[in-house]
Structures are given as C-alpha cells and as structure tokens.
Amino acid sequence: MAAPPQAPGRAPAPPLPTGRGIELLLLAFAAVIVTGALVIVEANQEQEVTTTLLWLGLAYLGLFAVAHLAVRRWAPYADPLILPSVALLNGLGLVMIHRLDLANADRASLLGNAPPSSLVLRQVAWTAIGLALFMLVLWRVRDHRTLARFGYTAGFAGIILLALPGLLPASISQVNGAKLWIRIGGIGIQPGEFAKLLLIVFFATFLVQKRELFTTAGRRFLGMEFPRARDLAPLIVAWGLSVGVLVFESDLGTSLLFFGILLVLLYVATERISWMVIGLVFFVGGAVLAYNLFGHVRVRVQVWLDPFSDFNGNGYQIGQALFGLGTGGVGGTGLGAGRPDLVPFAESDFMWSSLGEELGLIGLASILVIYLVLITRGLRSALAVRDSFGKLLATGLSYAVALQIFVVIGGVTKLIPLTGLTLPFLSYGGSSLVANYALVALLLRISNAARAPLPQRPSVPQAPLAQAATELVQRPAAADEARGAQA
Amino acid sequence: MNTPVRRVAISVMVMILLLLANLTYVQVVKAGDYRNDPRNQRVLLAEYSRQRGQITADGKVLAQSVATDDRLRFQRQYPNGPAFAPLTGYYSVLYSSTGIERASDSVLNGTDDRLFGRRLSDLITGRDPSGGNVALTIQPTVQQVAYDQMTAKHFAGAVVALRPQTGEILAMASTPSFDPNPLASHNTKTQQDAWKADNAADPPVLPNRAISETYPPGSTFKLIDTAAALQNGYTPDSPLTAAPRITLTGTNTTLENFDGTPCGTGATATLRDALARSCNTAFATLAGALGPDVLRKQAEAFGIGTSGMTIPMPVVPSSIGDLPDTAALEQSGIGQRDVRLTPLQNAMVVAAIANGGTLMAPHLVKEIQGPELETIDTTKADRIGQAVPAGVAATLTDLMIGSENRTQGGGKIAGVQIASKTGTAEHGNDPKNTPPHGWYVAFAPAQNPVVAVAVIVEDGGDRALEATGGSIAAPIGRAVIAEALRAGQ
Description:
heterodimer, A: disordered N terminus, B: 489 residues, alpha+beta, 5-stranded antiparallel beta sheet, 19 helices, 19 strands, elongated
C-alpha cells in the first residue's frame, strides 16, 4: 500500500486509531485469564503446578500474537474486539478439554485401561490449522467484494459438501446416528461446517443480485406486503435443502441453522417482514412434518419435555447435564473440582454443561457476553460497511454464530429440544474450529473495509497564492438553500 | 438495509436474554432440586472424596475411611462389622446410610457447624478437608459379650446396657446382625448382592431391634405396676389375690398364672411375694384397682409414650395402648394386650430405678472430635425427670432382689447382688402355641448400681414353648453385667 501523497508544506493528517494496540492488550488479557484457568484446573486436579503452565500460556499468547500480526499486516483497521473474543473462547475451550482429558485418564486408570488419547493436543493442532486458514483468508481475500464473483461456485461447492456425507456409505459418514462426517484414515471432517460458510457467501451474492425480484410488490395482507407466489422458489429450495439434511443426515441442528440463516438474509436483503412470516410458516410446517415422520425427532421432543421420565435411557444426557448445571449453581464448583465427565460427550455437544458445572451461572453469563461482543461487533461491521454484499455477508456470518449458540445452549439447558451442534470455538471438534476461524477472518475483512478511511482523492497540487490565477468561484446552490432555510 | 440489521441485532440480544433467563432458572431456581436428586451422584462423589471421620468407642475404631485408588477416593471400613453394625449402621453409595453414619453424618462428613473453625483453617492452610470423629459411649468388650452371647445360640433379639447415672449406652446389640462392609463396597455388584441378601434374611438383620422394634414387655411391666402402687397407698406387704386364675372384669375371658399355679400357699400374697413369683392374677387385679390414669402417668414418668426421642438415632416410641376398659387395663397390667416397649425403653425403666428414681436421657455419642482427635464437643448427661421418688426406687430395688433370687438360669455372679425382673411375653395370633419372647431386665450391684441391662430373646430362643425369660434371657443379661462390672474397674 502506498501512502497517500502529501501536499508539500502541510502537516500530515493525524493517523486514524486502528485499534491494533487495544487488540494486542486484550489478547494478552485473554492469555492471562486462560493461563489462570489452567493453573486452577491443575491445582484442583492435584496435578503438579509447574512453570510449564506458564510456558503453555506464553505459547498460547504467541500463537495469537502471530494472528494479531497478520491482522496488523493485512487488515489494519479491523475491529479490535473480535480476535480477542475468539482467542478467549478458544482458550477456555482448550482448558476445559484438557480438564476432561484428566478426568478420562483418571477413569481409564481406575478401570485398568490404557490411557485414552489426549483430545487437547488434537484440539491445539486444530487451533493451529484454524489460525493458518485464518491468516490465509486474510492474505488472499484482500477485498470481501471479490467473493461475490465466486458466489455461484461457492453455492455449488456448498451443496456438494453438504450432500456428500448423506450420499456416502454410513461406514464413512455416520457417527452417533448422524451422517455428518467424512472419515478417512482416522481423521474426521464435517464438511457441513465449511458448507455453512460457502452457502452464506452464495446466499449473499444471490440476494444482492436478485434483490429487485424479491422486492417486487405482491399482495398486501394484514398490513404486510407479501411476495408473489413464483418468487417463493428460492425459499422453497432452501427449505427443501434443510429437510433433505434432516432426512438423509439425521441432523436437526444443521437443518435448523441453514434455514434460519437464509431467512434472516432474505429479510435483511428485502427489508420485508413478510418473508419472516412465510419462513416461520414453512418452519412450523417442516417441524410438524418432521415430528410425525421421524422417530428420532419425536424422541428429542419427548426428552425435551421430560428428560427425567426416561433418565436411564434417552433422557440420561440432558438429565446429567441439568444435574451438572444445578450442582454448579451460581458460583460453580470451581474449575477442575466438579464432575463434568459424568455427562456423555462433555467435551463436544455438552461443553456448555461442563463449563456451567464448574464456572456456575456467573461463568456462563460471562461467556455469553463474550459471544455477544463477537456477534454485535460483526453486526456493527454489517451496519458500517458500505456495500450491500458486505452487509449481507457480515450479517449472515454473525447470525450464524448467534443462531448456533442459541440452538446449542438452548438444547443443553432444556430451553428447546436438543440438536447436535457444537459451540463455536469452545467445543472439541476440528472442522467446526477451522471453519469458524475462516468465518472470523471474513468478519475481520469486512470490518476492516467498514473502518478503513475512505480512499482520498489525489489532491490537486495548489500553486502558491501569489502565483495563482484568479478563479471564478460559484456559490453552491445547496448551501444557498440551507441558508435560506435558516433565515 | 441497516434497519433490518439493527432488528436482527435486537433479536440476537433477545435470544441471549432468553438463554440467560433459562440458565438462571436451571442454576438458581431448580438448582437445589437437581443437586439433591438421588440420581445425581455429584454430591455423593464429592462427599466420598473427603476423608470421612471415624466412629470409635473407648479408643477402638468401629468405622473408618481409608484411602483407595479408585473413583471414590476413600473406602469405608468396619473392622468388627456385625457386632457393632446396629451402632455404626452402614454407609453405602447405593443404599444411603443408617445408624450413627446417618445420625451423625454432618460431623463425620465435616459440614457440622461445630467444625466450622476447622473448615476455615483447612481453607487457609490448604489442608485436605476431612470430617470429624464421633466417639461413642459404648464399652466395646460389653458390646462384644452381648453380641457373642446372643449369637452363640443363634438367638434373635436385643441387648441394651446403660449407665444409670448418666444415660450413657454401654452396649446395644441386635441379633442376627449384618456386615456393613459389603454394603460400603465401591463395587456396585457387591453392594447389590449384599443388599439383596440382607433384605431377604429371616429373621431380619437390618433393623436395630433395640430402638426400632417394640415388643410386649410381659411381666417386666409389673415393675411399673409396683412403682405406681407404692405411690398409691400400697406397701410391699399389701395383700393381693393369690388365685391361680381370674375372669377379666366384664368378660368371660380367664387370665391365669404361669402354669396355672396359685400365688404361694395362702389365699392372698404380699406385693413383695407376688412380684418375686410374678403372679399374673395379682398384678392384673392390682392394675385394675389402680385405674388407667395412675398407670398411664407412671408409664409416662418412665418415658413410655415419648415420641421423637433420639440417641441420636431416632427411637421408635413405646406405648401402653388405649386402655379402653378395665379388662384391657387388667391385661395391660401384666404387659400384654397393646403394651409395647422397645428394649431401650425397658432398660430405661430399670436404669431409673437403679438411679434413685431419676431417669437420664440415653445417649450414644460421648464426644465429637476434630480430625486430630481433639475434643470439640462433649455430650452432657441430661436428666429427663423423676420417674419415682428415691424411697420408692429403694423399695423397688429391694423387691427386684427378691425376684432375682427366685429366677432360674445360669450365669449368677459370685459376690455381686443383682436386682432384676424377668418376663415371658406371649405374642402372635395363637399366643399359647407361639414360643414367647423372653425378657430379663436388671441392674447391678443392687446397692451401688453401675450398669442396667435389658435383654430380649425373641420366639423362645432355643427352648421353644418351654422358654421363660429366666431360662433364655437371664444368663445373657448376667454375662453382660459381669463384663460391665469387670470393664468398669
């Protein structure tokens, strides 16, 4: 980037605050919290508290410092709160996964089994891969608007990725009943997580291009402008896609997520609340249909209504999660002092109850606030960025995080029926982590565009006054009118 | 496009608020329910991860927790399980707890208020928190003798020994008993098997008969008749009927003496003689003459009918029944009909007589100790009330010596005068053909008592229909007294 040419004899304009200093400070703060959390876990689990922990904390800080340098280099005006929020969430997730590792190792040694492989080391590796992708995206995508050029390609790739596990044989794709995986040689990938990003890019491209189509006046009904029936096609396609995911991959969460994101993007693009109403009707219809057609959906609903009536069967997970949350209470048992390992899948789907048991309501509320900061900073970028595609993309990405945490946390705490999704950045799971780092890189890219100063017009060199030719200056008409209005 | 984005932001905040509200409901409003749900093992696991305190008696460990390397870090052990099981109870992951394990749980797990200072210092010094110890009033050798005596002949029943002056429980055996060790096992299968076997056992092994079962007291109840009579114009020499059988007032039912014999040789027998011979007709008539109010008042003075008594385990209330008419009163006067006492209650009656008429509250916990055996709290002897005046108590002692001297059975102790009363209580739907319960209540030495005992042997012991309190219960009571006298020196 070349510095804008300065007029000779003028003081340079004061540089706009980029927020990079704040970002680094907050990253260091996150490192302190995460290291502190690790020390508490070790102390409560009666492991030796050594200086190794300090080195781990510094390594964590180093990893994010590199990410910070990448932001400094390639997106200097990016929002300074987004990366530290993500770093803190990821760090707390790592500490909790390590804590559950200790519990699993403990149990294995009691049963005389070989110690299970460490999940936290894998998650650290995934974090590194995620940050690498994060930097790659920042480096390669220098202007988010270029993504619009690949919108349809992204949509095509997204649908392929989404459909792939459903088409593959269950031996490769099925884990715990849901066909979401591609597992080759011990490494599993959930392509749906990446499809989520690609489809958001596609939706944003598509909606910006076809905006007029959806804003064409239809009938007015109940004070709302409803679209023409033939314009419903994209919504029906998305709905079909969601139902397809549900039928062929038994994945309630992803299905819900896609539909919700598309609906919100449609609403933002058209500014018409009627799309939400139609969407909700489709949603209710789909939900009723799913309840009546699929046994696993009915089971989920019954467990949601009363997990304790079948505590030793289907209700065990939710029941144990609620016991954990209740035992934690307001203040929690303290990191490393509870029994979060009693809940099956404590490190992935039920990460939230693990955190809730040991950190209590206070800890969970704090984590929710961190998520809220992340989401609102994303939406803030959507408001501030100047192009429609950027607005839609930023809204879609932010809302994806929001809806996902609502569905996961609501499911684990019995607010809504449980669906199998992971908590972004906190839960164990490589695909989710890596995909979400790409998501954050895109958000930072858009926020950079939103906060960067407008490119200045090359200033015309002015001749010294003495040599200047007389110019005819005309008073602008608008200024006249304004003055007239004041008078 | 900005207006809808703002609305989306608001909807996100609403979603987060919904989550927070629901979390508050789960973690604050419902937290207690979830925490204390029996299916929630977390509290239990936390309790097991602390070192639970010991239960000791005179320096002997009855229950202790030793470190293990399994999930529940401490294993509860009962070194002499069955003999002391009625005292310690058990402490089980699956089946909760009983006995002192339950009654003194807050001390043993360290949450008792009296251990607050200790907890505070644990917190500051970073010491592993551990529970307090409970030292019992039990004399281990007396308990062992009581248990051995009962089990040697496979008797079902109970033995209670009290120190009359303080109410300290020196022994409390219940047989047949169970081993609490497998119930405290960390192996689920072991626990379940033991639980199944213990519950299927016949006669039952889990209840502590001394405090949770009531039995008809039979002739031992005549002590209460006598106590009431001595305060209502009767003397040891007052004449009572000596008839071998009488007809209950207002009925055709006859009531007869043991073996249908007359009470001595005369037409009447003195109160002293009637008690020594345990004549049913005499005491039935006496109870009828005293009236229901006098009898009930005297029974209550000895603690019968008191509910909510704890030692600290809860004690089932004893009762003399409704006494609707004179016939009922006459039957109740010989400790039949609806009169039902716990073995502990019967021991309290003789202990009060032994203590100059003053009834002391029976208790099992001598002191509460901190984890390093430092005394934190000592139980003080608690006077319940004056059951009978001192003079009446002295007369009763005198009469009980007469009874002891006529009582059969072995185990008499040379040089020690025991004061006692036996009982042979009928029970069941066909009393004449059901082996009776044999009672022996006593204290010794008669003039300077150091121990009061109550023994019950269920269902005739090894003598079937021939059984009497003297033949089956008295030898056990005397052995227990002998050991208490020996241990007390």
